[in-house]
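## retry 2 of 3
previous attempt timed out at serialization; input unchanged, resubmitting
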Amino acid sequence: MTSSYVIRGASILGASPADLFVSDGVLVDSAPSNAEVVEADGLVALPGLVDLHTHLREPGREDAETVETGSRAAAMGGYTAVCAMANTSPVADTAGVVEQVWRLGREAGLVDVQPIGAVTVGLAGKQLAELGAMAASAASVRIFSDDGSCVADPRLMRRALEYVKAFDGIIAQHAEEPRLTEGAQMHEGEVSTRLGLTGWPAVAEEAIIARDVLLAEHVGSRLHVCHVSTAGSVEVLRQAKARGVRVTAEVTPHHLLLTDELAASYDPVFKVNPPLRTAKDVEALRAALIEGVIDIVATDHAPHAVEDKECEWAYARPGMVGLETALPVVLSVLGEQWDLIADRMSRTPARIAGLSSHGLSLRPGEPANLTLVDPAARRVVDPSGLTSKSRNTPYAGTTLPGRIVATFLRGEPTVLDGKAQK
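## retry succeeded, writing output
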């Protein structure tokens, strides 16, 4: 395999064209001998994207996704690292399971797969999982989440925040007060009333975030809020950050673009947790991302088998695939603000996750983890053309800007000319 490359004429973060030189996995300051040339005229070079919220489904639901297929989808989306959520079967609540996911990621070799451990045993919200053992494992877990379920018990949440403080870990909360969302099918509001569907009120998210930032402040620990979806949540986070609470937050691409009006079609592809909200919420989320109240974009890539999505709305599983469309969606929302995009989709998520070799500047001496984007390209999303095992994309038939042309992981291409290399 060639290990030396000259990436010719790339625009680094939208600046004037320059050449990038890659040798033995790192960026170097001059062209290596016998290097392969990658023509990058008109392409923008970004540090490899980092996703803090990916569902890879393995072990247990390999019919929907595997570590390998999800890693390939991530590479096709410009990612060089992803954090794999714990709601697998068995749940990633022990050192053995997180090490299995970590090893599968290493074997695939397409992106760095960093497992996220469960906060509670079996995601049941009753007893803390083996947080210390997972942190000490080969996978070196530092983020813990029951995503898909909320750690609703405040005493248990406090204990979790206190426990991970010993090794500067993070509790990533799926903010949903379950007693307020029982039977919920979509956002509670005008559209749910019109459709006759049980609503998921914004306050169910906002109340948990408010509680948890107070707990994190009291304990002095690190809290991360998953998939923020409401304008009210933004205000809670803004106030917490102003007080110096150690809280970070993410927003998904679909919550930056789509609204609850899409539920009127009763197409289960638009069913997601938290649900799509109102246009007012979308506007607030976009502003918060730009301002930095929301720190990062995370995909919440949630692949599902056909039978779990192509059914009646009430019985469909919530979730959308997102790794391969995330950057185009963000580009459509933010425009060509390349440094901002690099910060929200690479530098800051890498810092939060403690992935020290990712999210770095594209300068000599740094690991060659990068992606090349064609900003002039336009793509009509075709579900059958996705690399993921699953097809539950909400963007089918939508024209999105930007195309991932190449992705390099430690100097080796995982994608070239828009095609997977493994």
